[in-house]
Write a structure and sequence with these properties.
Order of helices and strands of chain B: HHHHHHHHHHHHH
Shape of chain A: globular
Strand content of chain A: under 5%
Number of domains of chain A: 1
Number of helices of chain A: 13
Number of domains of chain B: 1
Largest sheet of chain A: none
Radius of gyration of chain A: 22 Å
Distance between the termini of chain A: 22 Å
Strand content of chain B: under 5%
Structural class of chain A: mainly alpha
Helix content of chain A: 55-70%
Distance between the termini of chain B: 32 Å
Largest interface: A-B, 31 and 32 residues
Oligomer: heterodimer
Chain lengths: 302, 267
């Protein structure tokens, strides 16, 4: 085993004594000389590179933000029309609902996990993922750094676009001090859950080599079930129960509802508790899937 | 002209045969189309299970509107889906080949492959239309059937004209798919509701600048016989299909103009 944790070709004429398990151990990243928390400088570069990619495609990002702005505007007008037809269906006042929808859509847009999923799919399909695997920095920490970089780039663009968003939808300060304090915690959990789901989705490519269709389906299903179009509390009975048992609502509905005061007090704490539960559950799940995935690496064409 | 039609038809058949080779992918992509368009309708169904109407339109009426819009979308998408790939055809230099072959380059782009997602859209559209006409207060007469068919074709031409015009920007700029995506999204979002919901300014823009109103809202109002508040007169409403023809011609002129400034990326 080399000290740097890099898998090298065996010298000519010798047989490689390493078993696949040995190689896998190296690839898992924990056989390297440094644990991941001491590699933060390298990881920061990975994150920064991803942010730079986002800015290189800033026109694309702005047009896609335009899609979100259109969506927010349409939702605002449609819900206003619905409230005009019958104002007392929901307990939430219209203004709070519009703030909720604006925020929920911004949360979805601010974390473009699909850019990382697509990147991973392409690396796996082309076989260039092998370069990521042999780097002295663990593969999973690299993925996390990529996700952080994508988040950072998107948030920077959002800050610039906020005035437009405020006109298309509606923005307001948090409902009260407690909501203001709990919102960042809930949002952080939401980003963790969304990130873990993206990692899980991306790793499917180790088996299928193709995740385009799945990614598209995921974006659709998650945007509907996360409550970015309709607050989860409006869903009819059966669908609401189903949604409450899925992780998607914890990525959007929970933080946005806490912000506008739709979920408050003990309920808010319980909702954040559920979010933490999802973080742990999906984290363990991702670790297990990763341990199997790394043994499945197929490098096409060598 | 006749030769072009014959070659186009042969290429289309080859493309469909090609797509059908990957059977599982064929099914998955078709299902994806259904899921994509179905989710938009699910939103309206969920919301209108609790509310009586949107902008004075009840659920059955909105269902008719949604079905017409989706059908127009499907009629546009089946032949024109390959425009989505124009970005990469230009970037990779593949488009060069189309210029030296004796068939209109646009037809060569369109017949390159057959998109299966668009079949899913078609299935969903027909399904929702059947459902909508069973619950809505509709009396199909030969006249309304004819009008509906023409309106669907007109709506498809409006979407197609817009798509061709925006796609042709790929001859000048590197990446135009986000612009396509935004335009699709605007048509899908604004086109699925009575436009009066969005306020007078937006309604005017969506009628006279970008004719979103004529894709489905105006035709749906004619078929449902409730043309009040459309912002256009009854006569104009009956002429809605013509708007598509004009708009498509404009889109194609933009394409021809942009094509002149095509510079190969080399290889």
């Amino acid at each position: 085993m080399t000290a740097t944790g890099v898998v090298r070709d065996p010298p000519e004429g010798t047989t490689d004594p390493r078993t696949p398990a040995d190689v896998a151990e190296v690839l898992l990243g924990d056989a390297g000389p440094r644990p991941w928390w001491r590699q933060w400088r390298a990881l920061r570069r990975v994150a920064r590179a991803r942010t730079a990619v986002m800015f290189a495609y800033r026109n694309t990002m702005l047009l896609l933000l335009g899609v979100t702005v259109v969506q927010i505007f349409v939702l605002k007008r449609v819900w206003s029309a619905l409230y005009t037809a019958r104002p007392d269906v929901l307990a939430v006042p219209l203004h709070d609902l519009v703030v909720y929808l604006t925020l929920a859509n911004l949360i979805v847009w601010s974390f473009p996990t699909h850019t990382v999923t697509r990147h991973l799919r392409e690396r796996i399909r082309e076989g260039s993922v092998v370069f990521d695997l042999v780097r002295p920095v663990g593969f999973v920490p690299q993925l996390v750094a990529q996700l952080v970089g994508a988040l950072g780039g998107a948030v920077a663009i959002i800050v610039v676009a906020l005035p437009v968003v405020a006109v298309a939808g509606s923005l307001a300060p948090p409902a009260d001090a407690a909501a203001g304090a709990l919102f960042p915690v809930s949002l952080l959990c939401a980003y963790c859950i969304a990130g873990l789901l993206a990692v899980l989705l991306g790793m499917i490519a180790f088996w299928t080599l193709e995740t385009d269709g799945l990614t598209m389906l995921y974006v659709l299903v998650s945007s509907f079930l996360s409550g970015a179009l309709v607050p989860v509390s409006v869903f009819p009975g059966g669908l609401r129960t189903l949604v409450q048992w899925l992780p998607f609502q914890a990525t959007t509905y929970v933080p946005a509802s806490i912000y506008v005061g739709g979920i408050e007090g003990a309920d808010a704490l319980r909702a954040v508790g559920v979010q933490l539960g999802w973080v742990v559950l999906l984290g363990v799940g991702a670790a297990l899937v990763w341990r199997r995935a790394v043994r499945r690496v197929v490098v096409q064409g060598g | 002209m006749l030769d072009s039609a014959r070659v186009t038809w042969a290429l289309t058949r080859a493309a469909v045969r090609g797509a059908a080779q990957y059977r599982l992918n064929f099914v998955i992509l078709a299902l994806m189309g259904i899921a994509y368009q179905g989710s938009g309708f699910a939103f309206i169904a969920v919301v209108l299970s609790r509310y009586p109407s949107i902008g004075g339109w009840t659920f059955p009426q909105i269902a008719v509107l949604y079905a017409l819009r989706l059908l127009a979308h499907a009629v546009y998408l089946v032949p024109l889906y390959m425009l989505n790939e124009l970005d990469s055809l230009v970037r990779e230099g593949t488009f060069d080949r189309f210029l030296v072959r004796p068939l209109n380059p646009l037809l060569q782009v369109l017949t390159r492959r057959f998109s299966v997602n668009s079949l899913g859209d078609t299935v969903t559209a027909v399904g929702i239309l059947c459902y909508a006409s069973s619950i809505a207060d509709l009396r199909w007469t030969p006249m309304t059937v004819l009008y509906a068919a023409a309106a669907v074709l007109g709506g498809a031409l409006i979407e197609g004209g817009l798509a061709i015009a925006i796609s042709s920007m790929a001859f000048r700029f590197v990446e135009v798919w986000p612009a396509r995506y935004l335009a699709d999204h605007i048509l899908l979002n604004f086109g699925s509701y009575p436009l009066s919901v969005f306020g007078a300014v937006a309604q005017w823009v969506m009628t006279w600048i970008v004719p979103v109103a004529f894709v489905a809202w105006v035709p749906a109002a004619v078929i449902l016989d409730s043309t009040d508040g459309l912002g256009v007169s009854g006569t104009v409403a009956w002429l809605a299909p013509l708007v598509g023809a004009i708009w498509f011609c404009l889109g194609y002129q933009v394409w021809r103009f942009q094509l002149r400034s095509y510079e190969s990326t080399g290889n």
